[in-house]
Description:
Layout: H1 2-10, E1 13-18, E2 23-28, H2 36-41, H3 44-155, H4 158-200, E3 203-206, E4 209-218, H5 220-229, E5 233-234, H6 240-249, E6 255-261, E7 268-270, H7 278-281, E8 299-302, E9 310-313, E10 319-326
Antiparallel strand pairs: 1-2, 3-4, 4-10, 5-10, 6-7, 6-8, 8-9
Amino acid sequence: MPEVKMKESEAPDAHFTVDKQNISLWPREPPPKPDLSPVLRKPLSLRVAFICLSLVLVASIVLQAVFYPRLVDKILDVKSDAQMLRDRADNISSLGSVLEKDRGRVEEAEVQIQILNTSLTRARSQILSLRIIMEQASAQISVLTRNWEEVDSLSSKIPELQRDLDKSSALNAKVRGLQNSLENVNKLLQRQSDILEMVSRGWKYFGGNLYYFSYTPKTWYSAEQSCISRDAHLTSVTSESEQEFLYKSADRLPCWIGLTKAGTEGHWYWVDGTLFNKEQSKRFWIPGEPNNTGNNEHCGNIRVSSLQAWNDASCDSKFPFICKRPFIQAIP
């Protein structure tokens, strides 16, 4: 029994402390060994007190031996909880930086959301505009549909309209023909009116030309000047019909015509620029003419009322004369 008490008294007493970072365990300092020799000499009451104290000590040691494993488990749990708390604290600090980054992203997202809201507002207004345009287009489609129905109804009338158009085309052709005829008549009337106007001034019309018969005797050169003053020249002759018209209209009077030559050896030509046909003119000369009597007959006239009526004479002789000008219709 004393050995047991000694072993129990020799069991270490455990103590621990817990701070924020460490948990420490250490044995309690062993109690000092009692000095038995004085105890034996003390009174019995002291022994009893000592025994009681020993029992209390043994009980405490037993309790410690019983609850120590549980306490160690609790300490380990506390350590693991502390480690977990440290990990969570580290996670919270890292989460704080992540939250800061996320806050910046959230702010950027808010700006983008505002931009999107603005774009959506514009898109909404554009959609409203498109809706209005669609309504207008729908109304126009309805109008076009009605017009198409009218076109369909008109299409059935196309053959009848085509027949009417053909009739109208024929009538238009007749009308155009009548208009052309009317224009020709108007031109003819205008031409006749212009001719009558010139005739009233003493001119005669033949073959598209106007002729003025002056019965005032003049030299050949004076007669040409008189014709020029009337926008004409002494007449030329280019055909038998014209020759016949001239000698008949001259009423058997000798009249200067526009035939002349330059000097004795010169060639005959028309003063108005008409080409002189020497072969054709042979049938218009009086037989034996031109003879250039006295080498001074360089101008021509109509002397007799015949197809062969031409005669050469002195240009200084005075005769009536015939002027000629092309008829040009006045523009209305």
